[in-house]
Amino acid sequence: MLRRSLLTAGALALALLASGLAQADPVQIRLWHMEQPPQRVARVQQLIDEFNKANPDIVVKQEPQNWGEVYAKAPAAIAAGNAPDILFAIPDFTTVIKGLGALESVKDFTDKLDKQHHFIPATLRPYAYDGGVWAVPLYNMAISMWYRKSVFAKAGLTPPQTWSDWKKDAETLTKAGLYGAGLPANKHLYTDQTVYAVLVNDDAAELFNDDGSLRFNNPKTVEAYSFYKDIYKFSAPDATNWTWGEAEACFDSGKCGTVLQFTVISTYNAQGGDPADLGVVAVPHADGLKDSNTISYSNAAMILAKDPAKRQAAEKFISFILEPANYGRFLNMEPGLFLPATEDGAKAESFWSDPLAVKYKAQIETMIANSQHGMLFGFTKDKVMSSIGAISAQNIIAETLQRIVAGGAAPADAVAAGQKEMEAAAK
Amino acid sequence: MVAPVILWLGATLVYPLVSSLALSVENVRIIGSAGRFVGLDNYLSILSASAFWLALARSVVWVVGNAVVQTVLAMAAALILEQTFPGVRVARTWIVVTWIVPTIVIVIVWRWLLSTSGGMINPLLIGLGVINEPVGFFSTATSAMTSLVLINSWRWFPFIAVMLLAGLQRIPADLYEAAAIDGASRFARFRRITLPLLEPALFVLTVIGTLLSFNVFDIVWLITGGGPADATTTLPILIYRTAFKGYRLSEAAAMSVVAMLLLMGLAMLAVRTLAPREEGG
């Protein structure tokens, strides 16, 4: 009897130990993202906590990074065998990580998600090339033109649709004591974006020919840079040093008549701005064209995990984020900035119920509409040149503008020099 | 007792140095990726590129500009702080505040002070009649480099001032008294007593200051990123850009080896030519 009891107790102890071991060894997922502001980290943590609670066999941990360092840090972590399992990305960063052989296609996964949520094509396109899909789109950002309706009305202006309108409006607003066109000319990603937003509105979106050679140096590009130079005269004198923050501050302080920005909603609202007075339109296009385009950046998640269990857990977490009930809360980690990458996300109650989304619904709808016409340099074709990573990282598009507005070079010469720089970067 | 020091130096100095040398003779592009031996190709490539020499020239302008501005400001501050007046003890303590403040705070403060959208400097200069309309302090090559030198000097001159003050306080007061009795003017006393006796401190500060200034990266990168149109791209900025923006890690390593050799040469030259001579030896 005693022996039997001992055996039973032993078996029970072993079973408990085994289950304890199993419970003590959930799949660990390290998530690197670059959304460092505290409110974004807190929102991501809130979603992680919910996910971890609902999935006791998986533990997701976030490790926020910053964009300035991650280009060097992630390759080093991969080389050291210490890569995160999920790494947030923008398209050109994906080419860098893919170039290291660290990515496997997630096409099956994105196909499955597409059936459920329907990706907005412009968000998936920059990650789908070379026969695979290399990251899962999570949110979109698109540049629009922002203005104050009352300022335009007072000056007798209507929002510009063409470059001629834009120039006329900028001149009029400048005469009224404002910086008529708040445009940057820094050697910075922001300037890459605003210049490209002008290029795509003059049929100069393609940086590469089909054979992979560069076609940056062409008459349309020169024409677009010439226009930027003309309208830059109406920007602030310190715009050679602007990043997104300075442009937003110029608009918020009422000194800039218009700015090209992803959003100004959050700061405009914080300053007590009237939602009805905040105007947003598509970036104006060249006079010969019919419609406006813009630059759009979809941010995505790369899965770096190699272990099948970890990959499965990573996919489960990403699926959780894209569920409409959660997705809106994820996007609203920075209300009014991150746009949905999926069609059901664009309709999700969790997205539109945010107080800021309620207040600025009309503006956000316009931003989403603009984002549908988004393009990104180097990601406009089915084949992506890996050199776009180096071209983008060196801000050669912005540097070309600086040669014109700060260095005094003629647009044709600056564009020719820009092409040479791009060719050197592509080697 | 010496072993831990040697180990520490080995880990923090020799290993990175040897790694840089090894990296500079390979063709590694991205950190962590493999490369093959290419001999001196990277050195030939960078030494034949105008970008390297232009960056080096800007570094010289940067170092000389900082040395001049910082020394003048520091000397003036040290001479004032050596005097006795109410609050001098507080001033001697608080002068170092710019030196303690983190770089990022300094960058944010100055960017906004000099901004045309709400910054204080432009309205102040307009109010004083110095300028008619707001100017961009970082919008031209000359104004950007000048502004950066002034900001960096503003940050570091208190450190030099404190060092000079220590030197000033070691000068015996009776030398000044004797000179005054002999009818020497204030300027003559400064030139004949203060400057010669401060020479050792000035020498050390020149060498250390040059090395530190040459390697300044944070303020330049955070304020102008090397712009506009490369006007403030000094050698450290070019090295960083080449390594982490251009993905040419080995070329950047070659640049850093050349920069290190230049600085070592400069330091040795300074020791030989500027070091105060022992008298009566």
Structure description:
- The complex is a heterodimer of chains A (427) and B (281).
- Chain A has 427 residues and is an alpha/beta fold.
- Helices cover 50% and strands 12% of the residues of chain A.
- In chain A, strands 1, 2, 3, 6, 10, 11 and 12 form a seven-stranded mixed beta sheet that branches.
- In chain A, helix 2 links the parallel strand 1 and strand 2.
- In chain A, helix 9 (189-199) crosses helix 20 (396-405) and helix 20 (396-405) runs antiparallel to helix 21.
- The mean pLDDT of chain A is 91.
- Chain B contains 13 helices and no strands.
- The mean pLDDT of chain B is 89.
- The A-B interface holds A 71-72, 75-76, 78-80, 96, 99-100, 179, 185-188, 236-241, 246, 249-250, 253, 255-256, 389-390, 393-395, 399, 402-403, 406-407, 425 and B 30-33, 111, 114-118, 133-141, 144, 223-231, 241, 243-247.
How is the quaternary structure best described?
Answer: heterodimer
Q: How much helix, percentage-wise, in residues of chain A? A: 40-55%
Distance between the termini of chain B: 34 Å
Integer-rounded radius of gyration of chain B: 23 Å
The shape of chain B, in one word, is globular
**Strand tally of chain A, please?**
12
User: How many strands, which pairing sense, and closed or not: the largest β-sheet of chain A?
Assistant: 7 strands, mixed
% residues in beta strands of chain B = under 5%
**How far do the termini of chain A sit from each other?**
81 Å
**Main beta-sheet strand count, sense and barrel state of chain B:** none
Based on secondary structure, the structural category of chain A is alpha/beta
**Biggest interface between chains:** A-B, 38 and 35 residues
Detail the poorly predicted runs of chain B. Answer: none
The shape of chain A is: globular
Number of helices of chain A: 21
